[in-house]
Amino acid sequence: HRWAERADRTARAVRERMWDPAVGMFSDVDPRTGGRTGIRAAVCFYPYLTELADERHVAGLGANLFDPARFWTPYPVPSSSVDDPRFDPNAEWKGKRHVCPWNGRVWPMATSHVVDALARVVRWHRPDWAPRLVDLLRRFIRMMTDHGDPARPNCFEHYHPYSGRASHYRGIDDYQHSWVNDLLARHVAGLLPAGEAGLTVDPMPFGGTTELRGARIAGHRVDVLVEDATFRVRVNGRAAGRGRVG
After folding, report:
1. Within the chain, what is the greatest distance between any pair of CA atoms?
2. Contact of 212 with 189, CB cutoff 8 Å
3. Which residues contact 222 (CB under 8 A, 6 or more apart)?
4. In the prediction, which pLDDT does 176 show?
5. N or C end of the chain, less CB within 10 A?
6. Is 41 helix (H, G, I), strand (E, B) or coil?
7. C-alpha 32: how far from its chain's center?
8. What is the C-alpha to C-alpha distance for residues 35 and 191, in angstroms, rounded to an integer?
9. Span 60-79, pLDDT tens digits
10. What pLDDT does 198 receive?
C-alpha cells in the first residue's frame, strides 16, 4: 500500500507539475522554485514510455517530435530542440567542443528511448502514426552504419543530427549504449513478450521481407517471417499463428 501510494503521488506530480499544456510537452522541474524549466529536450518524451502519458498528451508528442524545426531532423533525435538558442549540432558549448554534449547531438541511448515511446503511443493510441515510427527507426538504423551500409554497423557515443557523422574525435567506436537489436526484434519482427500472458507478435509496416530465427523467449524458440503485409510465427519449429501487418 505504501509503494502504491507513492507511485500515485509521483504520477500526479508528473502529470500536473511537469506537463505544460501550452507547448504540449513535459518539462523538467527546477527544484529551487518548483516551476517548470521550459527546456525542450529529447528526455521530455520519456513519460510516453509509460502509462503516465494518456490521450490528453498524445497531440503534444506529434506536434513536437514530428516538427523539423524541433526534433524531426534527418538523423534523429537531437538531444535538445533545434529552436533552442543553445542548440549546436557540432558538439560545441560556449565555443568549445565537448566530449559529452547534450545540447543538440544525437545520442543512441536517448533515441532508443524515444523510438520505444513512439511505439507505445502507436500501439495504444495512434495506429495511424505507424509510418512515422517506421521512418524514425529506419533513419536511426541508417545513422548507425558507415555510409548507410548495413554490413558495416557501428555505435559511437553521439552523432550529428543533420549529417549523421559520428563522434570519431572521441576515439570510442563500440559504445553500445543503446538497444538497436531489441528495437528491430520488437518493432520490425514484432516480438512483444508479455510475461505470464505469453507473447504477442505485432510487426510494424516496414514492407519487404524480415526473418528472425531462434529468439529465445521463456524457454521456447520463436521464429518470425514477415513478408510485406503478412507474417507467420513458429514456436519450437511448429506453426503457431499468422496474421496481417498493421
Report:
1. 60
2. yes
3. 191, 199, 212, 214, 215, 216, 233, 234, 235
4. 72
5. N
6. strand
7. 31
8. 40
9. 999 999 999 999 999 999 99
10. 86
Residue 131: which pLDDT band, with cuts at 50, 70 and 90? very high
27: how many CB neighbours lie within 10 A of its CB?
A: 18
Query: What's the pTM value of the predicted model, to 2 decimals?
Result: 0.93
DSSP 8-state symbol, 129: G
* Contact call for residues 155 and 144 (beta carbons, < 8 A): yes
Helix axes 108-124, 130-143, angle to 10 degrees: 160
DSSP code at position 96:
E
pLDDT tens for 34-45 read: 999 999 999 999
Distance, in Å, from the CA atom of 210 to the CA atom of 188, rounded to the nearest integer, reads 7
178 against 143, higher pLDDT: 143
> What is the Cα–Cα distance from 231 to 189, expressed in whole angstroms?
9
Q: Would you call 184 exposed, middle or buried from its count of C-beta atoms within 10 A (0-12, 13-18, 19+)?
A: middle
For residue 89, the tally of other CB atoms under 10 A from its CB is: 20
Residue type, 234: R
